[in-house]
Amino acid sequence: MVGTLLVALLLANALNITADVLAIGAGMHLLGAGPIALWAAISGVAVTALVVTGSFAMITKVFKVLCIALFAYVVVLFFADVAWRDVLLQTVVPHVELDRKYLALVVAVLGTTISPYLYFWQSADRVEELVDADEGGDAPVTLDERSADGARSKERHTRFDVISGIGFSYLVMFAIIVSTGSTIGEKGATQIDSAAQAAEALRPAAGDAATVLFALGFIGSGMLAVPVLAGSAASGLAGLSGRDWGYSKGARDAPIFYVLVGLGTLGGTALALIGLNPISLLVAVAAINGIAAAPFLVVLMLIADDRSIMGDHVNGRFARTIGWAAAALMGLAAIALIVLSF
Predict the structure, then answer these.
(1) How far is the CA of 191 from the CAs of 30, 183, 244, in angstroms?
(2) % of the chain with per-residue pLDDT over 90
(3) Do 232 and 12 form a contact (C-beta atoms < 8 A)?
(4) Distances (CA, A) of 118 to 151, 235, 300
(5) Averaged pLDDT, 261-286
(6) In angstroms, rounded to a whole number, what is the distance separating the alpha carbons of residues 14 and 5?
């Protein structure tokens, strides 16, 4: 079952990569650099070359710098005329409609919040960080193998890293939703079919900087997503087959992993050349991720609740309650969308 889900994840991630390299191309096109398809191809090949030839430390530094581009979405909040009272009220008591389009966006938001690839990437990234550390050589040094002070220090660092990363991602998502509602959606529903239209809709709030802000956000988020998407399914499939995996290893040490990464990045890049709409594709793929997330989350919860696998690290009551509630929410939203679609 896990293998089937991983193959499905690889295919879904390839579509997601297609949307992301198209987003990069659209961002470069907004800056007047050339056609979308050209920059989609260049970015796909460039990211593939970086992850195949670069070290884990270099890759980490490059993509931490790229995170700065995501502040472009936060900056828009300072220019937009935001009705903060309504925002705060509807953040706590959201407006709900039993409508197919509304549910599709809800599932899409859930699919970008609890995405299937994150189940693999988060744990894989932690392991790779341990492997890349000075202690232990090629093998990760677990907390149980460290001194008491060392284990506590590592646990604090990891907890801070995860919580700050989640906090930053939610800040960016909140900024996107609020700035979109305060600009594009200010006077009712607006159909946005291209990155240029979205940037133009931001012009009343951000002026001439709208195009640059939107382009930087598109380029930064696209570049960040591609290696994560490709690496998550590749690490899961390679690990399931008992092969070495991870960006901390070279291509000679983990050939299956890098072949799968290449299939994801270059396959997604090839699909980008057939002229798909990046905004429509991003929403569609997010909805697919939202539908696929529920079975992945059920498998994750079954593993996390199994003491024979997790030992003393098995889920506590709070984590179990939150986890199964999230799985139920994801499943019900996906089922409702499918029913209303037919």
Answers:
(1) 19, 13, 46
(2) 2
(3) no
(4) 24, 12, 11
(5) 81
(6) 14
